[in-house]
Amino acid sequence: MRRISRITVAGAATASLALALSACGGTSTSSGSSDSKEDLGLAIAYDVGGKGDQSFNDAAYAGLEQAKKEFGYETADVEPTDGETDADKEQRLASLAKQGYNPVIGVGYAYAAAVKGAAEKFPDTTFGIVDDATVEADNVADLVFSEEQASYLAGVAAAESTKTNVVGFVGGVNIPLIHKFRAGFEQGVKDTDPKVKVISQFLTQTAEEGGFSSPDKGKAAAEGQIEKKADVVYAAAGLSGQGVIEAAAANEVWAIGVDSDQYKQEALAKYKDSILTSAMKDVAKAVYNLAKSVEDGKPATGIVKGDLKTGEVSLSNSNPKFADDAELQEAIETAKEKIISGEIKVKSS
To answer: Under 8 Å CB-to-CB from 69, ≥6 apart: which residues?
Structure first.
């Protein structure tokens, strides 16, 4: 497919990029030589936890794979490194833009400063950032979601499914983004059944402490909540959520996944019967749509928001026990309609 190249790259620049990326974090590219200037397309730089988190980052990768397949161009995806600075992130994004990738997307709020800096240096490249970290620039798309809405529905599911009248929420890091998940979940539970108690906790205060990348922390937190009689536990914790799901399976209680449909994740297959549902946000669609807007010559910029009305946040229906529960499905559908109509205003903090 024809692609307009905005950046001219010499072979020496390609070699320099390889060195720069090896210093800033590993990268993988699809088939094709980087000397083919007409074929450079979407590049993504992962958030904490990297590819293989069965959640947020993997959803972004799915969007990249869809774009690569449809547009037939070269893509790149770059892993984070431990203890990296905003300057490291900015160098990574700038290196991708310099080589000619367009758009370049930072996956996660932590890329806010880096995206802003790189976008200023490469005004002819479209940048994107996934999650609540608004970057005001003419060539930046802020790909944000109403996570609180999907979390509200997860709260409805939890309140309808609990037998102990105790449910749990495990947040990866104590930040405003994860507060949205907690607020929506707690409101959904309480609106459905005020008698149900919600136990909420965050694993760490900062991402550097491993809140999004430590399954052992997630497992320990879930076990503590289960000891307090929680029989449904919702995790918004990236890779750490795998530990929550493992603990739920070991104790024969329900887990609610996040971001991706975790019932379908291969790495979690042995636990899937314990995954009631997942509160999803379609990061894959958002990533793909930004790539398509660039491919079409009409790059998206500004705030691009996905919610229940657009279908970019939702609950998964993969577990038959969840999908076939007519009473539960009716309660969720009713809540969904009220949120879309504005009858229910979901809190974000």
So the answer is: none
